[in-house]
Each structure stands twice: as structure tokens, then as C-alpha cells.
Write a structure and sequence with these properties.
The complex is a heterodimer of chains A (275) and B (251).
Chain A: E1 6-10, H1 16-21, E2 28-32, H2 42-53, E3 56-59, H3 73-86, E4 91-94, E5 97-100, E6 103-109, H4 115-132, E7 137-139, H5 154-165, E8 168-172, H6 173-183, H7 187-193, E9 199-204, E10 208-209, E11 214-215, H8 224-237, E12 241-244, H9 253-274
Helix pairs in contact in A: 4-5, 8-9
Chain B: H1 3-16, H2 27-48, H3 50-56, H4 58-71, H5 86-93, H6 98-114, E1 136-139, E2 144-150, H7 152-160, E3 170-182, E4 185-192, H8 193-203, H9 208-219, H10 221-237, E5 241-245
Classes of the chains: A alpha/beta (275), B alpha+beta (251).
Chain lengths: 275, 251
């Protein structure tokens, strides 16, 4: 049987009750791993209850895969415990760094696309996958500067990471749009160049115009520009999991389900065209 | 620059505003990252200490947060941990107003209790057959004891209720605040220092029989038994006791 595309939403606090009180029409939910990497209490209880009703993807923001001084073993141990409890659909984090010499930036900071950085990222992913006992999905970040001269494109870097580590990709289409605008590259060239067979999941979100740059804010609906890129790339990807990310100014669940219906329509049209 | 040097340069930019080696074209992006970094820390402390903020006012709170960000860079993978040292920063910043740090300590302890380790709870039904001479009470791992020197608890309660709190005042007799989680809810209550000392000893492993003996020595046999019985009953009903070890092999 051919795999089918699946569609999910980020699980956010304002919607906990709805997800737990009745069956929301999603194929999976995605949670921010760190919000549940606590010792116990209500967050873990809620996650267990959600897991009884929906497949769960764990999406991290603090692994710091680009850290030159390696990964935090305490972080990995906690994530492993959560993975063991949840048995997630996916475990993902970003192609970025946030920690160096014990300092933690709590942001997704950009790495230079160099051979040195490639070696560091691959070593860190190898370690993470060994500790977690599963393949990770790596997400392309939004970025606001290039932290040094690049030796390759971001999509070539991602392809090399996948080839060396066996990891898969979480393709954030909004991040492609934001970074393309901020760095002046062609978003379609990115979507053509990224290794399609490695993509397991797609993120869709909204962004804002800052003073000089586009900012990945996740505080508004998916804009037409991002839907267009999604429609462009989806037929190349096959059956992947698509998710709407909304982290700020969170609307009623029905509004997000409406966006998810749009994603389903685009995916169905893409499959018809491909057939 | 090597990757490590680039990352240290970014750290220096985020923490001290010293940008080196990124070039002028990077200026807008550097500004975005520094703003993101500081906004995340400010939001973390605003979310964690709403009553403290209400007590000292928005401007003073923001001053304290900025002072804290300069004093202690974040070091943990979890942003929640950034709250841990904020009461200490407030104690340094408000040496003559100890209630400020004490209100913050209450808020921090309640947040920690909310996500502290899960544990079973012993109820009154579990007490039959217990050998109280040898019994060692295991106390819930979420329990935190705060030594209070001011009326911070009353101030915190009124701030939670949105009521106008009275002036801060020192206590005639220092007391201890118990903070823990019971049935999924973070709880707090006031205890006197004698009960707190007893609970600290029990948590450290003192058998209940020895606690009774100490109480009898301090207060006389009848009063000692009355007090320890009262404490035990309250600890059980509060959900503070998660197990009773009753190992009869202990000599």
C-alpha cells in the first residue's frame, strides 16, 4: 500500500482542552520537546493523555546541533527519556546552534556552511542519533545573517549532512522563504536542490516584515507566498507529514484546521497532477 | 574564524553587545539576534514572576531583569532554569526590602513544584500496621521550604487576588513556607519554625520514633506526642508523605 501524506498541528496550551475532550481531525500533533522535558506534573500527564489519542512528533529547539563544543549529555538523556515514553512519530531539531562554553542563547543561531561546520554538525547528529536510538529529522532554519563566508549553499550542506549521517529532513517552507528574502537566494533553487527523498516532514508558518529583514515570527496565518512554495515543492516530496506551526497570537483551533484543510487541498491537487 | 571562534564572538555580542568579525552587512541580523535573545530572557522572567512585578512595578521590574541579564548569562538548555537565580539578584538589588526576594522565591518554588517529580501519596488508609518506632517517612520530592522574614506570603496572596496589599513588614518570629504539589496543584502554606525543623529532619531520614523522642525531650511527653501526632496528621492530609519505610530489619 502506498504511504499517504499526513497532516498535523502544533499542540499549544490554548488548545489542550479541545485536543483532549474530542477527536480533532489531525493525523498527528507536534510538541516542543523541551516543554515536556520536565520531571513530572501536569505537562507530562497531559502529554501522556494526548499520546493516547494522537501520534506525537517531538520537535526540539535546544539540542544545538551546530555547537563547536558538542552536545549537552544531560539534554540528550532527558530527551531520550521522553522519546522512550512517547514513542514519537518523529524527533527533530534545527540546523543551528545555541550553546557554547556553557552559555545558552535560547535562539536558533546560524552556522557557516563550511566543511569545518559540516564535520561538527555531522558528529553531533551521529551522537544524538546514537543516544536516541533513532533517525532524526533536521530542520532548515530561518536566518538573519551569514556568520562567515560559505563554502556551499544551505541545501548542499543539508544534503551532505543527510548523506553522512543518514538523518532525514524537516523542510520548513516558511524558513526557506524568509532566508531567501534575507540572503538574496532563489527559494525555488533551494526547493529544487534540497534532497527530496530525505524529507519526511514539512512545516508551514507565517512571518513578519522587520525593519530590514523578514522575521520568522509564527504569529500569523501562512501567507500566499509560502503556500505557493508548498504547492511547488510538495509533488517532488511524495507522501510527507505537513504541519502548521503557530506559536504566537494563537487563534482558535478551527482557524488552524482551516489552514490544514488548505494544505490538504494543495497536497491532493499535487498528487493528482503527479499521477 | 573557526566555528568555535565564530560562536564565541556571537556569544560576546549577545551578552555584551561587542560585535567583532561579522562585518557591517551583518549589523541588521546581529540586531535581530540580540533582540531575540534579550526578549526571550525578559519574557521568561515576566512569565515566572508576575506578583513580584506587580509588587515593585513594571519599570523597577524591568530594571531588575536587565541587571539580572547582565549579571548571569543563561547557561541551561531550558529557559525555565533562567528563573532560578532571579530571587538572589533581587536580594542584592533590594537589600533593605527583603520581601521582594521572598515574593520571588514563592513564585519560583510554586513553578518548580508544578513540574517537579511525580510521586505516590500515602493516605490515612495506608497507616495501619505501621511500626512507628522504626518508620521513616519519605517526603514528596516537590517539597521546598522557604525561610521567610517578612509578610511576603500575605503580600503574595493579596497580589494574586488583585487586592491592594499592605506595606511590607518584618515578622516578629521568622517562619517557614512549605511549597509542594498535591493532586497536580502547586500548594503553599505557612508553618512555624519548629514544625519546619521537624520536617527537615524527617526528610533527612530521621525515623519517626526518634522525632517523637526529640519532641518529648523538648516539650515534655504529652506535648511532644501531641505535636508529632499533629504534624504527622497534617503532613499526611497535605499529601507531603509519599512513602513510609518500615524496615523491621533496622536494628
Amino acid at each position: 500500500m502506498m504511504p499517504r501524506p499526513i497532516f498535523g498541528l502544533g499542540l499549544r496550551k490554548p488548545h489542550y482542552a479541545e485536543f483532549l475532550s474530542h477527536k480533532v481531525p489531525v493525523d498527528f500533533v507536534e510538541v516542543i520537546s523541551e516543554n515536556f522535558m520536565v520531571d513530572g506534573g501536569q505537562p507530562r500527564r497531559i502529554l501522556r493523555e494526548v499520546r493516547e489519542r494522537y501520534p506525537v512528533a517531538l520537535h526540539g529547539v535546544s539540542m544545538s546541533l551546530g555547537s563547536a563544543d558538542g552536545l549537552d549529555p544531560a539534554y540528550l538523556a532527558r530527551l531520550r527519556a521522553l522519546v522512550d515514553e512517547v514513542d514519537p512519530l518523529f524527533v527533530s531539531d534545527h540546523l543551528s546552534w545555541s550553546r557554547i562554553d556553557g552559555f545558552s542563547a535560547h535562539d536558533l543561531l546560524p552556522i557557516p556552511y563550511t566543511q569545518e561546520a559540516l564535520s561538527v554538525v555531522c558528529a553531533n547528529i551521529d551522537r544524538a542519533q546514537a543516544v536516541l536510538g533513532r533517525t532524526m529529522l533536521i530542520e532548515n532554519p530561518s536566518s538573519y545573517l551569514a556568520p562567515g563566508p560559505a563554502e556551499m549553499t544551505e541545501w548542499a550542506f543539508l544534503e551532505a549532512v543527510c548523506d553522512r549521517t543518514g538523518c532525514a529532513l524537516l523542510l520548513d517552507v516558511n524558513n526557506v522563504f524568509v532566508s531567501a528574502a534575507n540572503h538574496g537566494f532563489d527559494a525555488l533553487a533551494y526547493l529544487d536542490g534540497v534532497p527530496h527523498a530525505r524529507v519526511r516532514q514539512v512545516h508551514l508558518a507565517g512571518h513578519s516584515q522587520g525593519e530590514h529583514l523578514l522575521i520568522d515570527t509564527h504569529d500569523r496565518p501562512v501567507p500566499p507566498s509560502v503556500w505557493d512554495l508548498y504547492a511547488y515543492v510538495l509533488p517532488k516530496l511524495g507522501a510527507v507529514a505537513t504541519m502548521i506551526e503557530r506559536d504566537d497570537d494563537i487563534p482558535p483551533l478551527a482557524e488552524l484546521l482551516g489552514e490544514l484543510a488548505t494544505a490538504r487541498r494543495i497536497a491532493a491537487a499535487g498528487i493528482r497532477r503527479a499521477a | 574564524m573557526t566555528l568555535a571562534a565564530t560562536q564565541r564572538a556571537m556569544r560576546d555580542w549577545l551578552t555584551a553587545g561587542e560585535a567583532a568579525g561579522f562585518g557591517t552587512a551583518a549589523a541588521p541580523g546581529l540586531a535581530v539576534y540580540r533582540n531575540n535573545h534579550r526578549a526571550a530572557l525578559v519574557a521568561c522572567l515576566e512569565a515566572g514572576f508576575p506578583r513580584t512585578r506587580a509588587w515593585i512595578g513594571d519599570d523597577a521590574f524591568l530594571d531588575a531583569v536587565i541587571h539580572h541579564i547582565g549579571r548571569i548569562p543563561p547557561s541551561s538548555w531550558t529557559l525555565d532554569a533562567y528563573s532560578e537565580d532571579f530571587p538572589a539578584t533581587l536580594a542584592l538589588r533590594y537589600p533593605d526590602d527583603p520581601e521582594v526576594a521572598e515574593i520571588a522565591a514563592i513564585e519560583l518554588a510554586l513553578d518548580r513544584a508544578f513540574v517537579g517529580p511525580d510521586s505516590p501519596v500515602i493516605g490515612v488508609d495506608n497507616l495501619s500496621g505501621c511500626d512507628w518506632d522504626r518508620a521513616v517517612l519519605r517526603i514528596t520530592p516537590t517539597l521546598e521550604l522557604i525561610d521567610a522574614t517578612t509578610n511576603a506570603f500575605e503580600l503574595w496572596e493579596l497580589l494574586c487576588a488583585g487586592a491592594m496589599p499592605p506595606d511590607a513588614a518584618p515578622l516578629d518570629t521568622p517562619r517557614v513556607l512549605f511549597v509542594w504539589r498535591q493532586a497536580g496543584i502547586a500548594r503553599i502554606r505557612v508553618a512555624d519554625s519548629i514544625e519546619a525543623q521537624a520536617l527537615r529532619r524527617v526528610r533527612a531520614g530521621l525515623p519517626f520514633g526518634d522525632l517523637c523522642a526529640h519532641a518529648a525531650e523538648a516539650f515534655g511527653p504529652d506535648e511532644g506526642i501531641r505535636r508529632t501526632g499533629g504534624w504527622l496528621g497534617r503532613w499526611i492530609t497535605d499529601g507531603l508523605v509519599c512513602a513510609i519505610d518500615n524496615d523491621r530489619s533496622i536494628p
